[in-house]
Every structure is written in structure tokens, then in C-alpha cells.
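=== RUN LOG ===
request id: a7f3
mode: sequence -> structure
chains: 1
length: 215
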Amino acid sequence: MERSTSADIEGVLRERIMRRDILPGAKLKEVMLAEEFGVSRTRIRQALGVLEARGLVDRIPNQGAVVATLDAANLFKIYDVFEMLEGLCARLAAQNVPPESWQDLVELFGPDLEQAIIDGDCEQMYLAVKTYRTRVIEAADNPTLHDFLGSIWDKTEVMIRRTLILPGRALASFKEHAEIVAALRAGDAQRAERLKCESMRRAREVLEKYQKFVL
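=== RESULT ===
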């Protein structure tokens, strides 16, 4: 009996790709993966098919599946859409739930997190951003938006993580998100949307400046 489902395998491989434990362009060998997970090659193909649909894997004739490579030109095209969707998500989230429901995020993006970043712990900022994203997409309550953003996050998460260790970026991102969360707490949907779009534009500027390192 096979121990892992296709969803289990897809989740593990997705995490490895996003963390760059498996680098862009690397081959994903069905036989080796089948042995690792104790499943048939059919189940591996099913998992790879899901990853391909999410844009994380490419199928190359006579080579099989490889981890997708995202070049700068395509990345910035994604960010054109990313900015608008993130802003929309913040606006819908503010409109859909009571302002007081954001108080825990106000506290999360508070002095303790700021001090952790100053002390060099950028991982805490990354985790805080993930918490923010989970909360706003849930509050936005829009399945189409959820799917679009999920696909983009899959492609960009590793780069976002890498940008946070660049000089001054984690602290700048902290201040930007603290303002966004304050707007959510105030129930100001338009301000939350505007601030999130501005934050995304600044993130893009950082990516453009440091693209050789990030990519």
C-alpha cells in the first residue's frame, strides 16, 4: 500500500522548490522520487502535474520534469499583476471583517518584531508576512483571488524571502506592513489597498536593483 498521496508529495516538493532546496533547472527524476516516497511513478507524475499547473515545474521533451526557471522579464510582468491583486485583497479584507478582528496583527507588527529585525532576525519578518497573507486572503473570501495569489506566491516566495535579507529591506517592509495593518484596524479599506500597492511597488524596486542576487 502506498504511504503518500499525490497531495502529500506535491506539498513536500513545492516546499523544497520554494526554499530552493531544489534549484531552478534541476531535474525531478520520477524513479528516484518514487523510491523516496514509496509510491508508484504514476503517483509521482500526478504530483508533478499539479506542480506544472502551478508554474513550478516545466515538462521538457526528452528530459522530463525540471524545476521552472523564472527570468527577470517574466518576474516583473508577474509583479504588474501581483501589485493589483495584493491591493485588492487588502481592500476586500478590510470590507469583509470587523476592524477589531485585526488587533492581533497590530500587535504582531509591533515593537517586539521591530526589535527582532534590528537584531538581525529577518526570518521573523518573513513569518509575520506569511501570517498577514493568510489572514487577508481568508478575510477577502474570494476563491478566484485566492487561486491567483496562490499561484503567484508559489513563484515568488523564495525571492521575497531573499529580498528580506537585503540591507534595510526587512525593516522597511515591517514599517510598510505596520501601516497596512493599522489601516485594516481602522476599517479604512481604500487606505489599506493604497498602502499595499505602494508596498508592492517598493518591493519591485528592490527586486530590480538586486535581481542578480535574488534570481
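=== NOTES ===
The mean pLDDT is 90.
The beta strands are 27-28, 57-60, 64-67.
=== END ===
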